[in-house]
Specification:
binds zinc ion; mainly alpha; 2 strands; globular
């Protein structure tokens, strides 16, 4: 997927999570920009700095690293009114993992590189409305988008839980129950 599409997808994810209510749109745009930076790895091989064209499109860089930073921030910001860093890394996790999901629609991504060179793709499912003409009801694009939507939904719920903990002084369990009730 092209870099502009990645940026737009990230930006829409930030809006869908409701971040624009408390943050400037430039804040969401900035994190969207950070989430497309992993595409710089396309240049590592031509420049002689790597052997793999997508060496940063791994679960370690796109999920584990931002998630770890999220938990560290949550620990450092415990008992404080602010949730600035938690929010930042939560959004970055959603956008970076969304980036890799989007790339997996179009072709294999070696998400476990360098430990495994196995490429992973969204299953090439093809459900047609009729065999008479091309009319796809469910395909890899839809599955990828659904996965991203679920990710955004979980992100929004976590963001809401943090809000209830910080602003209303609720414990984690009470805050989570509160946000689940708000959503469903
Ligand atoms: Zn990419």
């Amino acid at each position: 997927m092209d870099t502009l599409s990645h940026f737009i997808l990230g930006f829409l994810g930030g809006l869908a999570m409701g971040l624009h209510r408390k943050h400037k749109v430039t804040y969401i745009a900035f994190i969207s920009f950070l989430a497309v930076l992993i595409d710089l790895d396309h240049f590592l091989v031509p420049l002689g700095y790597g052997t793999e064209y997508r060496s940063m499109h791994t679960v370690y860089i796109t999920i584990l690293m931002p998630l770890l930073l999220f938990f560290i921030s949550a620990y450092l910001e415990r008992g404080k009114q602010t949730a600035r860093f938690q929010t930042f890394f939560l959004l970055l996790t959603v956008m970076l993992s969304g980036h890799v999901i989007a790339d997996m629609i179009y072709g294999p991504v070696k998400i476990l590189y360098p430990f495994s060179s196995q490429g992973y793709t969204i299953p090439k499912i093809d459900i047609q409305a009729t065999s008479d003409f091309q009319s796809q009801i469910i395909g890899p694009t839809g599955i990828g988008m659904a996965a991203y939507a679920i990710l955004i939904f979980i992100g929004a719920m976590i963001h809401d839980t943090i809000y209830h903990m910080k602003k209303k002084g609720l414990g984690f369990k009470a805050a989570l129950t509160h946000s689940v009730k708000d959503f469903v």
